[in-house]
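Issue 218. Parser rejects a valid record. Input:
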Amino acid sequence: MKLKIHYFLIILFVCVTIFGYAQQKTIAGTVNSEGGQPLSGASIVVKGTNISTLTDEYGRYTIVAELDQTLVISYVGFQTQEVPVANNNFINVNLLNAASDLDEVIVVGYGTQSKRKLTDNVAKLTSSDISQIPSPGFQSLLSGKAAGVQVMQTNGKVEAGISMRIRGVASIGAGSQPLYVLDGMPLINQNESNNSAPQNPLLTLSPNEIASIDILKDASATAIYGSRGANGVVVITTKKGQSGRSSISANVSHGWSGPANKREWLNAAEYKELLQESLINRYGTESGTQRFESFMDNYSAGTDWRNGEVDTDWQDLAFQDGYLTDADLSMSGGNDKTTYFLSGAYNGTKGIIRGNELERLTSRINVSHNFSDKFTGGANLSFSKTSIDRIANDNAFVTPLQAVALSPISPAYLPDGEPNGNTIYANFLLQDRHAFYNTVIRRVTGKAFGEYRFLPYLKFNTDFGYDLYYQTEDSYTGRLAPFQSTNGEGYASSVGTESYITSNYFTYSQNFANIHDLEAVVGMEFNDTRRRFQSVTGIEFPTDDFQTIGSAAEITAGNGNVSQYNFLSYFVRATYSLKDRYLLKASVRRDGSSRFGESVRYGTFAAASAGWILSEEDFLSESEVVSFLKLRGSWGQSGNAEIGDFASLGLYGGISYNQRPGISPTQPANSFLTWEKVNQYDIGVDFGFLNNRLSGELDYYVKQSKDLLFDVPLPGTSGFSTITRNIGLMENRGVEFVLNTENIKKEGFTWNTSINIARNNNEVKELPNGADVISGRNIVREGEAINSFYVLEYAGVSPDNGDALYYLNSKNEDGTLSKETTNDPNRANRIVAGSPIPVWIGGFTSALFFKGFDFSFTFQGEWGASIYNAGGLYQSANGDYYDNQSRDQLRRWRQPGDITDVPQARFGLGNGTAHSTRYLERTDFIRLRNVNLGYTIPQQALQQLGINNLRVYLAAFNLLTFTDYQGYDPEARSDAGETAAGNGIDFYSAPAARTFSLGVNFNF
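Output the parser choked on:
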């Protein structure tokens, strides 16, 4: 009996043991932020036990738990989440950001860092900030989202260039755009347009593949990029797969676009009245009337202009109803060994200007594999093809918006349906029908990477990146197009730029005694970029049906060149924290560039910063009001090398003289040409109150640019016009403020807002010999903002005779300016009358979520800048030309005693058309940049379909604009030449597109 009991107890023990083990299982998974960024150091605890673990640097973890237990997953700055184990072998979690976002993961150069311990100034945007906004380019989606960051599209063309300024303009003669870094690879960002209108090279990147964008603003953050960080750094991180359950996500949307603003022009009756009056005032009643009738007979194409048979609205013909179609599909997943992300996207955009369209195809694959516990490798690869139907630049007569100058009494089309060729200026409809200009960009970006962990606290990373930008441009102008004197003209060009970059660096990271955290990065990087360009022009085609260069009877021009530059860099960075509250950081980068003189091509760029988390101190740690408070300060130096590849060398070029080859000098040498340097100081505070329901930051900075790369004029006897030298000093000084609020936080209802505002004062401190540099309507002068407007001061109209008046602005004996007036603009003096750079910029975003509904919007604003409407000399010229006029001309001076600001109409006499403040306006505006309304269908309604999430939404872009600017758009600038936009010139520049889009996104 005892023996049987013994056996029974043994069997019972074995069964209980087996049953117990059967209830336990190993769970694996990943912990990420909302944007898909891995959270390193996240805590996973089996609820009610002391069993716990932390995620590694890729957000991965494994833990043993029983089927009926629950995992509690938490990370500082994110909402804690509880997940039942049940039958799950893989549990992947995306933690929602806490209201303050104080501890989100920030991507910095060659690593990541928690924002809590960050001593730099970095603005972070996730995919949720830029998703489902109808725009083909990702940069325009950043407007109003980050303090001190101004994003401006040149005009309303689909491919228009993007100007992005971080804390003002830091250079006079070198590049002013930030460095864009994609998954650690500096991107080619060179405008390769050949029709004088800049285009955006980063249109090739699809927003759907972006996980996050980190904008590095102060020198402590940018100095690790050394010679390229002077204008700030935009770090773009693409999406990655997660181990566990695979998922498929898709988004499809279609939108409709129109111009955000139209102007009002004179109709045919008003135009006739103004023109006749103008000609009579110039030539007298009899002669003026004869000239008027002759003009009307000539350009009315045989229609009855006296009875108003034709009243052409040329503006409506220049614009068109646009559309935008977006579709993207992505697949992601993996296991504890391999993760993957695959995506494809299509964008088709028909612009708001006739003849302007874009089509883009993109694909991406990101793969990572753990070969062992020590070695991880992978690759990112993307391909895109972008095809753009382009129109002429803003200064060309055949560009559509210059059609507003045409007379409304001229019909657009002839009775046979062909565009009317007998108009006072070129009829762009002939160009639209008989010519084309097409640009195709093919781009490949790739990165192969490997990481070997020697020890738990020591690893080595090696990366190899590749960026290929290959562009072809083809145009044909048929024999019936305006200004075409031959039997057709064709043009073809191709440019290929390849960039290779290899980075190798060690990372040491260790905690000592639970109070000392130390991380150090040391490495090197080499970047080689090569460019090849060639073009050919031919004329005399047998028929307009043959439009390629091979059909040209005569080759009239050809061009070709090759170029190359490289950088060799060494860098080290160390971060240290004591007791999680005292923070230090320092970095040094040594850069060498082939662009500078042989003896001065290496530069050293250092930075240091410190922070103190006061809220961790005993006197604040128990505060119910102060949740987080950190003081930080930084200093650093970064550089600017964005000049020609051979700017320091004496160059020679081949020439032809009497059909004989020769060589002539084309550029003088400057062997001492070196880096443009930017020193920046930053003092800031990060704060959170009431359990971080109110959070934000306040920063003050001083940004000084010295040794400016500047094209200094040379005497004509030298044989050269300019030479590039390091001369000058410029300063940007400003304040930035960010406030995030969690206004309502209830089950099923949340409301969050974020406001940012920044003030920046730009001032030129030193110039060569203190001499002004004047270019058109702009001036670079000591004590003024760069490219300030330098024009005559308009004094209005004489009520006695309708003369336009100008202030003399000559100097009085006491040093003041004389405010006497003259009707002769040649007697008046120009003054600095405004700046194209805004003093204040800001944004306001609000997001509400209520029981499946979501609603968000962003306002953006700028104040303090001016814009010069150079087209006003023709558009608002009181009948000085045959151009149609804006409706403000209806209040022109007509008889003695009239009080008005529009002079008397006098054809061809320039009464008030001198370049002056008459055409200079403030661009202050507030724009409702985007609105998004969505509804997520309850999950229980989707279970039978196998869909995890389904959301339908309505989005709007550039919905409303509040401004006093009389032109098309306060943000639009001329694209005729690379400097026009930066100089604040508006010349027949198209407004932004207002777009409405309806879409659906889902995943399963």
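Fixed in the parser; the record now loads. The CA atoms of residues 22 and 66 lie 9 Å apart.
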